[in-house]
Every structure is written in structure tokens, then in C-alpha cells.
Amino acid sequence: MRREASLPILKSLIIAVFAAGAALLLFGKLRAGGDVSNVIIIVITLGVAVLAFALGRLISLGRAWCVLIAIATPSMVLVPIYQPPTWIFPIIFIGLAGFYINGVREQVPLYLSNRKTQKTLADLLPPDTNLTFIDLGCGLGDIVTHVANARPQARVIGVETAPLSFLIAWLRAKVLANSNAEVRFQSIWSTDVSNADVVYAFLSPAPMTRLNDKLRTEMKPASRFISNSFAIPGAEPDEIVSVNDTRETQLLIWRM
Ligand SMILES: C[S@@+](CC[C@H](N)C(=O)[O-])C[C@H]1O[C@@H](n2cnc3c(N)ncnc32)[C@H](O)[C@@H]1O
């Protein structure tokens, strides 16, 4: 399971180094033949972004990782060419931290539930109209938006503490989802789950034991916890639902 969390980082790094290396080689060859115009540099930079994104999709990296490498790889090309002022680096760092801070703080990076998983999850929800659904660590709000629209009678809550992810999820919930969606800037650990009928999480192996302790203490009888991919050590799920997608997602379900 730990491989699951570290593999995307490794794959992203390999793609970024490969694509940026190829672009810099091309740039070196063109410059050997004379001055290279800014238009050519922009074309190479856009090309490398598309190449990085396409390679990511080709090896089934999640969309968030593909977007990240499509942004990071052109920077790896532009920095040696233009040698920008050093203040730009802290700004890039702060921008990335706005999405990935919980990778450091909680060992839970940002990656997103894909469309098939969103649909499978919505189909799994019990039919009752007063359902309360919580996504712990809602990322960019894909699950919150999808479930709120698929189940307009339900109350759908997402919590997130990575500032830029929260902002995007909050905006998406306001603009794209029904009014039954709510996104809060709140930690998983201070979220009250006692009223939830279904709690969903797509985190990493690191917080699962602590999360299990919290949910077992707080969730009401007959409610359900659904974990995307990550098991609770020592607690067999009551049900496993396979999503028919390329990453062979499994939804692990425990009844409280
Ligand atoms: C793997 S992403 C899943 C995103 C979303 N649930 C989905 O399935 O598309 C996990 C998210 O949990 C967030 N997260 C991690 N620890 C958290 C905490 N203690 N409180 C709130 N959010 C947290 C991360 O910032 C990240 O956006």
C-alpha cells in the first residue's frame, strides 16, 4: 500500500526529467544553428507541457499529477533558458504548497477520485433522502460536486485544509453543485462525523489507524465508512467494490 502513495511521485519525476531533458536537447540543437526566437521557445514550452500531460495519462497517472507535471516540466525548461529572478522560486513553492502541503503535514498528497469512482460511489449510497455524506479531505471537490448533483436531497459536506485546494473546491461547490453542497476549511481531525450516514476518504496508508479510531468512536450505528484504496490495518472491510477503471480502484466499505 505504501508503494501506492510513492509511485505517482516517482513516475511524475521520471516523466518531468525525460520531457524537460528532451526539450532542452532540442533547444540546444536549435541554438547551435543560430538565435532562437521567443516564439519558438513558447512553442517548445507548450509542447513539453502537452507531452508531459500525455505521458502521464498514458501510464495512468491521476489527473492532478498530470496537471502538476504539465506545469512543473515547462518551468524546468524555462528556468535554465531565461534564468529568472530568484524571488520567483518562493512564489512557485508557495503555490505548490497551497495544493500539496498535506503531503508533508499528514503524508497525504493530492490526487483525485476519477469519474468512474465518483459514479460508483454515488450509486453505492443508500436511498434515504436525508442522507448526510462527508468527504474527509475533499481535494478539489470532485466527489462533493458529483455526489451533491447526483443526490440533490442529500446533505454533502467536504473538508479540506490545503488552502488552494480548499478555495477551488469551495468555488466549484458554489458554482457547479446544487445548494446541498458545502465545503469547509476544516481538518479531518476536528470534523464532527457523528451525524454522517456515509463518510468517504481517499487519503494514504499513513492516517488510516488514527482515522479508524476517530470514526469508530464518533460515527453512529449502521453508518458506513468508504475508503478509496487504503485499508485499515487489522480491520477487514465488510465489502469491497471494484471500480472498472484503469487503476483498478477498490472501494473498501466498513459498517459501523
Ligand atoms: C488524495 S486527496 C483526495 C481528494 C478527494 N477526496 C477525491 O477523492 O478526489 C486527499 C486530500 O486530503 C487532504 N487532507 C489530508 N489531510 C487532511 C486533514 N488533516 N484535514 C483536511 N484535509 C486533509 C489533502 O490536502 C488532499 O487534498
Tell me briefly what this model is:
This protein is of the alpha/beta class.
Task: Tell me what the structure shows.
There is one protein chain. This protein is α/β, with parallel strands linked by helices and 256 residues long. The protein has two domains: 2-84, no CATH class; 115-255, Vaccinia Virus protein VP39 (Rossmann fold). It contains eight helices and seven strands, in the order H-H-H-H-H-E-H-E-H-E-E-H-E-E-E. The protein has helices spanning 2-32, 38-58, 63-82, 88-105, 115-124, 142-150, 163-176, 208-218; strands at residues 132-136, 155-160, 181-185, 198-201, 224-228, 239-242, 250-255. Strands 3-2-1-4-5-7-6 form a seven-stranded mixed sheet, with helices on one face. Helix 1 (2-32) packs antiparallel against helix 2 (38-58). The chain is elongated. The chain binds S-adenosylmethionine (SAM). S-adenosylmethionine (SAM) is lined by residues 102, 106, 108, 110-113, 135, 137-139, 142-143, 159-162, 165, 187-189, 202-203.
Strand content: 5-15%
Radius of gyration: 21 Å
Biggest β-sheet strands, sense, barrel? 7 strands, mixed
Report how far apart the termini are: 23 Å
Largest sheet strand order: 3-2-1-4-5-7-6
What would you give as the CATH superfamily of the largest domain? Vaccinia Virus protein VP39
